[in-house]
Amino acid sequence: SGCGICTKRCPFNAVSVINLPEALENPVHRYGQNLFELFGLPSVSEGDVVGLMGPNGIGKSTIIRILSGELKPNLGNFQDPPEWDEIISYFRGSELQNYFRNLSEGNVKVVHKPQMVDRIPRYVKGRVEDLLLSIGSERTDEVIEALEIGGIMKRDISNLSGGELQSVAIAAAALREADFYYFDEPTSWLDVRQRLNAVRVIRSLADAGKAVMVIEHDMAALDAMSDYVHILYGKPGGYGVVSNRRGVRVGINTYIKGFLREENVRFRREAIEFKVKPPRVSDEGDVLAEYSSMKKSYPEFSLEVDEGTIYFNEIITAFGPNGIGKTTFAKILAGVEKPDTGKVKKNIKISYKPQYLSSDYPGTVDELLYEKAPGYGSNIFKSEIMKPFNLEEILDKKVEELSGGELQRLAVAVTLSQEADLYVLDEPTAFLDVEQRLMAAKAIRRIVEGRNSSAMVIDHDIIFIDYVSDRAMVFSGKPGFNGHAGSPTELREAMNRFLMEVGITFRRDKETRRPRVNKINSFLDRKQKELGEYYYLK
Ligand code: ADP
Ligand code: ADP
Ligand code: MG
Ligand code: MG
């Protein structure tokens, strides 16, 4: 599956590495015979946040395990692993030489926030406050406040939601005293506001002179917290190469363009284009479905929904905090839950992807697709579904054994393969890597446009939301108690309302048009807040 320029297997979908870099001769680490190899390492520096971006399976967590001292790099010699002396001299001339010398002598203190926070309760018992207060940091109150976790201090760690666990894990890492801080995917499970809280806490470590490294798939969050980025490319599961370090703006733009100029490596056939869409005139177009104002109550939570209209050929995104009723609304639209008052007026076919996915299926991905995905095997299916979601590589895997990201790709693919009028997708980017998010965004747009249908998409990734949205709806209220869903409106209007609550402003990158977070209190930030234009200036 190459583009014709080379014969190598594509590292991403529809992507080719044109040339193999020289570095490929000297791996930093190889897991074993015919196993994954890592080429190069990123640099760390005091006072900076260095971001790592790239697809899953390309070696990002491996890098952090090496730099945090959990994994001793074997320089490719897995049969007869080298001693520290040899490793240190391998890095002669680079700043990493000192780093590894100090690491090997136990002279650096590192803290590592692991990727899989959902595993924390297996190892850490007790209440949140037991964990956080026992660290005894002077910054305890400050960090708890910044992450807004004061309300869960008395809760048992085993009863925390994914988002709560993530925030507690970030707090625990940030409170520990160290020289080097490593954060592996700190925004999974978090809503937009929580992501920005995490960004601020991570940023504050670097501002206090620490060296910080972060792996992140949310490009807006990565952009807001990093000074530099390294892009990783190669063949997921096969080998990964660490690119040169770039300033964060240039680095992320380079990623979006898919071409590393200095290395002369193209890793995506086309750039991702962000278009600033003209506002959609809402009384134009044919109505696909309508709903009246609705109410839905659970014993401890109530949701109020303002009436809304969904037109043909549009993608509406829905966003807001966790625990505010977004999933409840999606279930009402999909007919899985009934509202207490009000109703959805529709006579349409809906295809729904729930937020929480079940991997209960006694067969392979291939078998599931054969059974559940109309058109499986056709050319259209291949180009519109199979390729963007990179299903080829997981066809023979058992559904029960898929990773979170693999299961997500499969679920979104099956949902989109149905002939439907309305696609309801609840958090389709969860567990997806940065490349898969961009591919999913494109695929959703293409399918909605191609089928004269519409989509309602709930998500927390601003770059993804910006790319797919025609219009948007904002959820607000008090998480866990009550929620209010506004009517769908123009994206900018919705974003302005939402960002005003979160207290941040965005501008657009001049080159790629992607949204970028403004620095708090910068000139633009102050000006936009004054004008009430939180999303971006026209
Ligand atoms: P990323 O964090 O970029 O998703 P990882 O660094 O976790 O990637 O993994 C890179 C590759 O190395 C993957 O293909 C993974 O399966 C493989 N790998 C990770 N740990 C081991 C290990 N202990 N033994 C063999 N292979 C491993
Ligand atoms: P979101 O998707 O915005 O995170 P949800 O719609 O999943 O929010 O949940 C909103 C609130 O409703 C939460 O406090 C949740 O615990 C509660 N809730 C959701 N479903 C049920 C249910 N079936 N029974 C009782 N409470 C529920
Ligand atoms: Mg990883
Ligand atoms: Mg939800």
What does this entry look like structurally?
This protein is of the alpha/beta class. It contains 18 helices and 24 strands. Strands 12, 13, 15, 17, 18, 19, 20, 21 and 22 form a nine-stranded mixed β-sheet that branches. Helix 2 runs antiparallel to helix 3 and helix 15 runs parallel beside helix 16 (462-468). The longest helix is centred in the C-terminal third of the chain and has 18 residues, at 434-451. It is globular. Residues 15-261, 260-502 form the ABC transporter domain. InterPro entries: 4Fe4S_Fe-S-bd, 4Fe4S_Fe_S_CS, AAA+_ATPase, ABC_transporter-like_ATP-bd, ABC_transporter-like_CS, P-loop_NTPase, RLI1, RNaseL-inhib-like_metal-bd_dom.
Q: What bound compounds does this protein have?
A: adenosine-5'-diphosphate, magnesium ion
Radius of gyration: 23 Å
Q: Ranges with pLDDT <50 over ≥5 residues? A: 1-20
What's the total number of strands?
24
- Our measurement of the CA-to-CA distance between the termini, rounded to an integer number of angstroms, reads 42 Å
Describe the biggest sheet? 9 strands, mixed
Treating each run of at least 4 consecutive H or I residues as one helix, how many helices?
18
What is the helix fraction of residues, given as a range? Answer: 25-40%
General form: globular
Class by alpha and beta content: alpha/beta
Average pLDDT rating: 92
The portion of residues forming beta strands comes to 15-25%
Labels describing this entry:
about 550 residues; alpha/beta; eight-stranded mixed beta sheet; 18 helices; globular; binds adenosine-5'-diphosphate; binds magnesium ion; oxidoreductase activity; ATP-binding; nucleotide-binding; RLI1; ATP hydrolysis activity
